[in-house]
Amino acid sequence: MQTRPRRYHHGDLRAALLTRAEETLAEKGPGALSLRELARDLGVSHAAPSRHFKDKQALLDALALAGFERLLATLTASQDTAGESFADRLGALARTYVGFATANAELLDLMFAVKHDPEASEALVKASQSMGGLAAELITDAQRRGEVREGPLEAIAIPIFSTLNGFARLAVSVTLPSATLDRDLEHVIAHTLRGCAPDAPAPR
């Protein structure tokens, strides 16, 4: 049985609106989001949300930005506790990304949809590109160590992200059985590592 959202009494209304908006997004999808309904859920006047978000699109932009910031913080934390090797760091990155995607499917869809909007804010675009910076650092460091084959960064990073994002989409859509999801992800990580491995020396 669902409980009614707690009514808002004091404190940071903007944060409360974003929290309730993310809950609604997860429960009902973006079409159900409404500043008026959020105000009703929180027990504030219908005009109160407009002090923080001029319209629904502004609310969606803020949700997407918060999502990217949270994802980056989570991915960065995974690297702080991973081992030194590329295999350890890539594995930690992959498990964390897939975990975030499966736990926040609707939010992730919104994040990638909003970032491509021509009117996306500079802050949102910058936040969406931060993941690329993290991946670039991971790959270039591994290339210096000789753990990853030489070549342009994009030629390695794009296949890695495409593979992980594709797996995450399959996991979210329940195409993959949940009972074997962790094992399947380990197979994907192993396959990706083989694709990144340095080329074998030519025989003499």
Folded structure, characterized:
- The protein is mainly α and 204 residues long.
- It is 68% helix and 0% strand.
- The chain has eight helices and no strands.
- Helix 3 (56-80) runs antiparallel to helix 4 (86-103) and helix 3 (56-80) runs parallel beside helix 6 (122-145).
- 26% of the residues are buried.
- The model has no long low-confidence stretch (mean pLDDT 89).
Features:
mainly alpha, 204 residues, elongated
What distance lies between the first and last C-alpha atoms, to the nearest angstrom?
A: 71 Å
How helix-rich are the residues, as a percent range?
55-70%
The gross shape turns out to be elongated
- In N-to-C order, the SSE pattern is HHHHHHHH
Return the structural class.
Answer: mainly alpha
Q: What's the tally of helices?
A: 8
Average of per-residue pLDDT values? 89
- Over all CA atoms, what is the radius of gyration? 20 Å
Report the β-strand fraction as a percent range. under 5%
Unreliable stretches (pLDDT < 50, length at least 5) are none
The largest β sheet comes out as: none
How many β-strand runs?
0
User: What's the assembly state of these chains?
Assistant: single chain
